[in-house]
Design brief:
Three copies of one chain form a homotrimer. Chain A is mainly α and 155 residues long. Chain A is built from five helices and no strands. Chain A is elongated, with a radius of gyration of 20 Å. The interface between A and B is large, with 34 and 39 residues.
């Protein structure tokens, strides 16, 4: 059995979940760009208020934090605090040879809660809702890393 | 020999170190939550000062940076600047087939210095101590990535 | 065929690109240190203005943001928003068994544009140039993750 074969159900499950999360993470960069263009501001570097074809009428105000841009940056930062760990924890977890159904629940469940967390954060839902949608993903992460640890310690 | 078998000593060493670092990284999110509850502040989003069951008496002051929370955020940011690279560098490094004892020293040494770095940062030790505890981990990272590069260039 | 063998051209291509990006990412931490020593400031923690052998004449001004340091921090943050995703997306992509030449163009192309992006950011080039150098890398990321997703969904 080739554990890293994309035709292997367990590894395919991981690869699907990982690809979706990577695409989601990368989308945050593009969303930041879209928002910066929309508000014509929210920039960060001094050179960003030089006159260029893309920024023909620069002003110092463009370097001030803009909430519409900052919201996406916070969402992106939340991704950075979670997705890299998920990408490795999920990989190691499927190598422990878990039941396929459990792996699907955990990996796709993680993806689903992260997308729901994004929707809640993006639309400015109250903190309680955001926290409720962040928590299951974090618990899945802890479970997968813990399971890997136990399996590896038993060698 | 199956290089990705958790019963293989080299890969198990990596999996143990990686799992511990993932659990450590995820713990920073929970520690941030604990601190925000303790100080009832250090929030970041405008919607976090809406009245909710968890925040029955909101105030604008809750959005101000709080040093007890900010300290954990800085520790977490330091993790983000180091752990994702470690998780991949360590994986590639064990694939180069190093001596087990050397791999154990490097991977467990990395984990040990990161935990010591956390303890120093958490308790506000002077910068010199923090730097002394960060440096060996960063050098281990450079060594593992450099060793992988040399091995891969020789194909 | 051992897909994770560093003598396998596809995997070696990935390992070379990944190692270079890890070394580049880690270098940002060291560059931050160099800049903090150069300007004797740009620190972030209250304890960093305690009198120590490395900081014999501390002052509160050392905690103020310093543009020469902040520039490196922004470059590093840009790395964190990109490299961890690349490290996993590139790994999964080579497991889909792409043509070697295409994989080399994508993986080495990513490395080349990231190094060019660094050079532009480091020297304060206008935003239009920086954006033009960031975009191909992000598109490569999206392509590799999308290709992996399609391959994994077809299992």
């Amino acid at each position: 059995m080739d554990k890293l074969n994309l035709h292997h159900p367990l590894f395919a499950t991981y690869a699907i979940a990982a690809s979706l999360m990577i695409l989601k993470g990368v989308a945050m960069s593009w969303l930041t760009v879209v928002r910066m263009l929309q508000v014509n501001g929210g920039f960060r570097s001094p050179e960003d208020i030089k006159k260029t074809p893309v920024n023909p009428n620069p002003s110092a105000a463009q370097l001030a934090p803009n909430e519409r841009v900052e919201r996406i940056r916070r969402i992106q930062q939340n991704d950075l605090e979670n997705l890299p760990y998920f990408l490795v924890a999920g990989f190691l977890y499927v190598l422990t040879g878990p039941p396929l159904l459990l792996a699907q629940w955990l990996l796709y469940g993680y993806v689903a809660t992260r997308l729901a967390h994004f929707a809640a954060y993006f639309t400015g839902q109250i903190h309680d809702i955001r926290a409720a949608l962040w928590t299951p993903g974090s618990l899945i992460l802890i479970f997968m890393a813990g399971r890997t640890l136990v399996a590896a310690l038993g060698y």
